Description:
Blueprint: H1 2-10, H2 16-35, E1 72-76, H3 108-121, E2 122-124, H4 135-143, E3 149-153, H5 156-159, H6 170-187, E4 192-195, H7 201-208, H8 212-218, H9 224-227, H10 235-260, E5 265-267, H11 271-274, H12 292-307
Amino acid sequence: MEQGTRRARRGRGGSSRAGLAVAAAAVGVAVLGVAGCDAVGGDASAPSAGPAKKAAPSPSPTPVWDTSPTSVVAVGDSITRGFDACAVLADCPEVSWATGSSEQVDSLAVRLLGPAGAAERSWNYAVTGARMADLPGQMDRAVRRDPQLVAVMAGANDACRATTSAMTPVADFRADFEDAMHTLRKALPKAQVYVASVPDLKRLWSQGRTNELGKQVWKLGICPSMLADPDVLDAAATERRETVRSRVEEYNKVLEEVCAEDLRCRFDGGAVYAYEFGTAQLSRWDWFHPSVDGQARLAEIAYRTVTAKQP
Length: 311
């Protein structure tokens, strides 16, 4: 710096431009010299950083839904008890879609656990005539078995009353189902739940009314809100049947909504309601409850829902 200063002072008597050029050149050489210590270029080699480490793979999240549960409990009503499938006005749990042992049905439990496993690790607490208000009590019994899967089919008897005005109000139906789910979750927070939709009772009427024997059995008090006066097609009868059908649809909406609030609950998406039961799928005694073949169809729907991959 001193040399540059002296040259600048002498610039009054000499060439200042030449002095500045020399100074700039000297600074440039110094900068390049310093840069050469750290920069990579020419024959200089880059410092070794060692072998690159591969990032550890992220662990796969545990699925919320297990498609292979190892125990099953069923709750619900006469359909799950196999009512009228084997004999008139009698339960036949061995053909139950949920837990039955019949090879003709190939129940949900048998499909999931095998015949031996189903015999040891599946239980049926459904009760013929039960309504949604009875489900919390059934669920309380079910949780004592510590099941991995609870299969639910309830609601038909809430619509099958003496009159349409006696049908369970939708708000009560919701409260009872929520109570049942709360009972389950309080005891078993990780148990899974399969919920079947309520069948289309009007379709069952339209199919069963073609059989004279079936209509005689209906007079014993089977679902009078839908099945009373089965051959009457006037405006009042039509409105009554549509009222029942609409209530069933409202019940199914409740089942779907409450189930959707629980990560370990699967609703069948309305598959049972939409299933077109024919005479082959109806009891040959009352032409309303599922036959053995009808129970097998319900088992198929349940198994397909339970084993579906996580979306």
